[in-house]
Structures are given as structure tokens and as C-alpha cells.
Design a protein that fits this description.
The chain has helices at 4-7, 13-21, 34-42, 54-57, 69-82, 100-114, 128-136, 152-155, 165-181, 193-202, 223-226, 248-260; strands spanning 26-30, 47-50, 87-91, 118-122, 141-146, 185-189, 207-210, 218-221. By secondary structure, it is α/β, with parallel strands linked by helices. It has one domain (3-269): Phosphoenolpyruvate-binding domains (TIM Barrel). β3 (87-91), α6 and β4 (118-122) form a beta-alpha-beta unit. α5 packs parallel to α6 and α9 runs parallel beside α10 (193-202). It binds 3-methyl-2-oxobutanoic acid.
């Protein structure tokens, strides 16, 4: 199993598509600063996400909603300085893409001033027009389906999505629509295992899971959860990789290898 650190080559959208075709698992993690970014890259992490989870794990907020474009830009710049090879994704924060023009402007900032290679945005088929505009302007997009934490007040909690047949059918339709609109990657959060597996099979673009399925093309977790330093409870879909490691670097290497070997997620990290 080869990682980007073995080959020394930059991880690109082409490389990720190739990994999906070759059934090589994609290891992804969040990071918010240069030092951790450097360790992640050295440990073989293919994709580094500056997640708006920084609102919770860095800023100590209760939700991701207060995170601003300026916060995301600052942390993207920090992470970019720690990376040479891994692909860098920046989350579009809450209400930073309410119109197509606003989305292009803010995503453009993350790419031009931040050094991001892709942006991630929450939302279903209703975001297809935005995804198409970003894509047309040369901005790769990771669409985020399933549990969308920016909708926490609308949903009424951090709940598994797509359990009812109608919701499951809609999620598959949304995924196909977003791919058709130009999305280069899909992230599925807190989705029943069977549905996540079905969406992964149906899409040509790589599908990354978090609380989804081991069948996804790759996995992502919040760095502070795997290092067991998050505020509050660690979610069911995460795992403390520090428990059996002697250093942060070793914990991250164990995570990468568990993803690559298909050992993570195990049954206890996914939803029926
Ligand atoms: O903000 C974040 O950390 C995320 C997770 C799904 C990885 O979007």
C-alpha cells in the first residue's frame, strides 16, 4: 500500500481519483496549525482539512456557527506553511456561501491568500449551482452530505442522517447531482453504513467517511479526537489513537495505517 509520503509526489485531485479507482484508501485528518500539519504530512496523511470544527476544538465554542471567513483564512495560511505534498481543503464556514458570488469570493480567498487546494461545503442538491460556479472558476469542491453541523439548530441535534428510506433516497440523489455539478470529492458524516457504502459505489468521485462506512474510499477524523485532547465527549465514530502510542506522530501513523489497511472504522465506529 503506497502513501503520498512513500512516493514523495503531491496529492492532487487526479491522484485522489486514481486512488479510488485503484481501491487505495485515502487517509484524511483535520489540522489547524503548521506544526501539526507538518506531522500529519510526515505520517502519510493524504488530505488535510482545515475544518470549521476549529470553532469547537480551538476556540472552545459550542458549535461551528461562530467561525468566520477570517478565522478560516488565518488557519488555512498556518496549515499551508506546514505542508508540501498533502492536499489542503478549507471548510466554507456558516453563511459564507449564501449566494454564488459570495461563495466564489470567499473560496477564492482561501485558494489565493490561504493556499487551499479545494474547499468543502455543507448542503445537498440546493448547492449544485454554487458547486458548478466554483468548479467553472477552477476551484475544486468537496461536498458534505449526511450530518451537516452548520444545520445543528435546524436539525435539532447532532443526529445520524438518512435512516428513513425517503431520506436515504434523497441523499443518493443529492450526491449524484453534486457530482454532476462538478464536485471532486464527497464527504459523508454520520450516515448508516449500508447507505454510505451504496453512495460510494454509485459515485465516480472519491467518498470520504466519518461515522459512515469502511467501504468509503477514505476516512477523516478530527485530529484532537484521535489525540484524545478534545473538549467534551469523543464521538462514537472516533477512536483514541493515543491510547496505544508513545508519541503524537506514532498515533497519527497508527491512524493512517488503520485506514489504509481497512481496519478503521470498525463495527463500533459506524451506524446501522
Ligand atoms: O469541520 C470538520 O472538522 C469537519 C469534519 C467532518 C471532519 O467537517
Amino acid at each position: 500500500m503506497s502513501t503520498q509520503s512513500d512516493t514523495g509526489k503531491k496529492v492532487t485531485v487526479r491522484r485522489l481519483a486514481e486512488m479510488k479507482r485503484a481501491k487505495e484508501k485515502i487517509a484524511c485528518l483535520t489540522a489547524y496549525d503548521a506544526s501539526f500539519a507538518q506531522i500529519l504530512e510526515k505520517s502519510g496523511v493524504d488530505v488535510v482539512l482545515v475544518g470549521d470544527s476549529l470553532g469547537m476544538v480551538i476556540q472552545g465554542e459550542e458549535t461551528t456557527l461562530p467561525v468566520s471567513v477570517e478565522d478560516m483564512l488565518y488557519h488555512t495560511q498556518c496549515v499551508a506553511r506546514g505542508l508540501n505534498k498533502s492536499l489542503l481543503i478549507t471548510d466554507m464556514p456558516f453563511l459564507s456561501f449564501t449566494t454564488v458570488d459570495e461563495a466564489v469570493l470567499n473560496a477564492g480567498l482561501f485558494m489565493k491568500q490561504g493556499g487551499a487546494h479545494m474547499v468543502k461545503l455543507e448542503g445537498g442538491a440546493d448547492q449544485a449551482e454554487t458547486v458548478a460556479a466554483l468548479s467553472r472558476n477552477g476551484i475544486p469542491v468537496c461536498a458534505h452530505l449526511g450530518l451537516q453541523p452548520q444545520y445543528v439548530h435546524k436539525i435539532g441535534g447532532y443526529l445520524v442522517q438518512g435512516r428513513e428510506q425517503a431520506a436515504a433516497d434523497k441523499m443518493l440523489d443529492d450526491a449524484l447531482t453534486l457530482q454532476h455539478a462538478g464536485a471532486d470529492m464527497m464527504l459523508l458524516e454520520c450516515v448508516p453504513e449500508v447507505l454510505a457504502s451504496k453512495i460510494t459505489e454509485a459515485l465516480d468521485i472519491p467518498v470520504i467517511g466519518i461515522g459512515a462506512s469502511a467501504d468509503c474510499d477514505g476516512q477523516i477524523l478530527v485530529l484532537y479526537d484521535i489525540l484524545d485532547i478534545s473538549l467534551g465527549l469523543r464521538p462514537k465514530f472516533s477512536k483514541n489513537f493515543m491510547a496505544s502510542a508513545n508519541s503524537i506522530e506514532e498515533a497519527i501513523q497508527h491512524y493512517v495505517s488503520a485506514v489504509e489497511q481497512g481496519e478503521f472504522p470498525a463495527a463500533e465506529h459506524v451506524f446501522k
